[in-house]
Amino acid sequence: MRRRPPGLLLLLTLVLPAQADLKIATRTGPCSSTSTRYTRGSNFRIDTQDAYGPQQIAIYNADQRRSYALDPASRTYTATPVDPPKPVESLQRVSESRKTIDIYLDTVDTGERRRMFGHLARHVIQSERRGSERIEIDGWYIDLPGARAAYYLGFGIAAHTGTIDRIDFHRTGPRETGLALLETRTVSGSPGATFLTEVSELDESPLDPKTFAPPPDFHQVPFLPQHRPYTFLDTLRADWTSLVCSADELLQAMPHAE
Question: Do residues 55 and 45 lie in contact, with contact meaning Cβ atoms separated by under 8 Å?
């Protein structure tokens, strides 16, 4: 998502690769923002398309230890060597602040089940509360070899001050780690918002190894053409698109007269 309300607790979901081939397509929001993820072993590829810009493709090839960024419009790509992860020394120099953040996490399995993409999905409701901010996630999840959900909380480190806050977690119920097939996230506070994310395709067929490398008709460049300074016209175009999407969402939420 391009825009995020400031001061709200957001929960990000990633699909982590394992030893299986998977293609997972998801769509989010009334503007049909789409993301297709391909995983094979430790290799992964993410194709994204939204209302704010051109299609983007990101590839990580663990076998080659390289990451690629592709621009389909110009048939160009950039390549970056990826070294094995190293300890983050900067975090060792970060001191703790005197502030403590209490986070309350509640997970409830409703007991409801239904078949989705050939798997038995469970209905789970999760909520997180931090002060007056709250997010509720109503979703359907499956345990799928080759994919699992990892949740990261988007706060806790105050980089501008060079300190890190202490975080105390208060959990009720086991954390949901399954793959989300359908999620409705409701963020309370000001202004508050509801976001729908749905898996539209789930394919467990073997993937072509060429999926995780630039196509042969693409050529390598130092920088992608779309990586240019953001102009005032780009800002107006993005703001207008956001306004249209918000209006569509409002109209869909309004009751229709018989």
Answer: no
Q: Distance between CA 111 and CA 124 in Å, rounded?
A: 8
Question: Which residues are bridge partners to 45 per DSSP?
Answer: 38, 59
- Average pLDDT over the chain, rounded to an integer: 77
User: Over 90: is that where the pLDDT of 147 sits?
Assistant: no
Give the start-to-end residue ranges of the domains of the chain.
11-253
Q: Which helix (H) or strand (E) holds 248?
A: helix 232-253
Q: How far apart are CA 212 and CA 22, in angstroms?
A: 13
Secondary structure string (H, E, C) spanning 136-162: EEEEEEECECCECEEEEECCCEECCCC
Is the distance from CB of 141 to CB of 113 less than 8 angstroms? no
Closest among 212, 207, 206 to 60, alpha carbons compared: 212
Q: Which residue has the higher pLDDT, 15 or 8?
A: 15
Cβ atoms of 185 and 136 within 8 Å: the answer is yes
Percent pLDDT > 90 in the chain is: 43
> For residue range 25-70, what is the model confidence (pLDDT) as tens digits?
998 866 667 899 999 988 999 998 876 667 889 999 999 999 999 9
Beta-ladder partners of 66: 61, 81
Q: CA-to-CA distance for 57 and 226, rounded, in angstroms?
A: 12
Pick the CATH number of 11-253 from 2.50.20.10, 3.30.470.30, 1.25.40.20, 3.30.2310.20: 2.50.20.10
Convert 109-118 to b/e letters by CB count within 10 Å (16 or more is b). Answer: eeeeeeeeee
- What pairs with residue 201 in β-bridges? 25
